[in-house]
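so my prof wants the structure for this chain in the tokens format not the other one, which i didnt know existed until like an hour ago. anyway here's the sequence
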Amino acid sequence: MRTVKFNVGLVAVVAVICLGICANLSAITCVYQPGTSETVRYSTTDSYRNWVEMGNSSEPSQMSSRVISQSVTMQRNVLSVAEDGSALIEITITEAQVTLDKTLQGEDSTRTYHSTTEETTSTWSDVPAIAGVSYQIRQAPDSTVLEITGLDEARAALGIGAEGGVVSEILSDEFVRACHQHDFILSGVEVDSPAEMMIPVTNVMIKAQAIEESFTAVGIDNNMIAVMISGEPIHVLPEGIAEPPQPRDWGRSLIKDRSDMSEFALAGIGQFNSESNTVITDTSTTSAMLVLLEENVFPNAAPEGQSSGNVMFTAIDLTDSYEVVD
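here's what i got, hopefully its the right format
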């Protein structure tokens, strides 16, 4: 029989190293360092497509669409770190782009806004340059934005209000939190320890009371953790979750109120560097389909208990992406 002798000291060292690697990979918490900076980009695209299928025709009709895309590039500078690990971070916008593409009754239209530190161009009237604007956030290790300061002053300097405009949206509390908070960090997920979390519905056309997100983390290598994200709609408002927002115009309100949501899918991925303890990417896509029967709008469109066969479909596709670009 062959005898194998182990060097106890070597085994102990290897064990400590392995435990260190595993512990390093399992923890997903941001650690901020005063004086550090990074350039990040946050982008969103909201796409809505409507069409009608008539019971006596196989061809869709009355097609329309609305796609709005936003992209904001920012410099994040860590000014100071408190004893609880939260950081005071100065955010400076270096570039912003907004595009609105619409198709209605066969007519296409496009509006654009682009602001850099060199110039700003816009097909919207009276839209100020946002590049160069700064504000500050207090951010916790779990990425929660605890406090936002400087937005009111920034809007006042630009001569804009808190709502209703291209630049106002980018300088809203809701948009700032969406830029910098990360659900997969907030969930408390760890490598080989999945997590779930209820999040509020933020889109006005998603017909649900909340979203239950699931997170699974795996170690890619010694320094990188990937978190897979999925989600399901919840139709009863959970305790502690804010009421979903509602459309402001009667047309979209009618479609949402009287439609059924026949499809829903949410998928995403986050990447976290466990050496620098920073988020590298955070991307998600959400798709949904609303189905509106004609008789749900016009009760006399068909005999009682029957369907006219005329149906309006609303396809919703939402994407948002956070990435470190420098």
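also thought this was worth mentioning. Confidence is low (pLDDT under 50) at residues 1-25.
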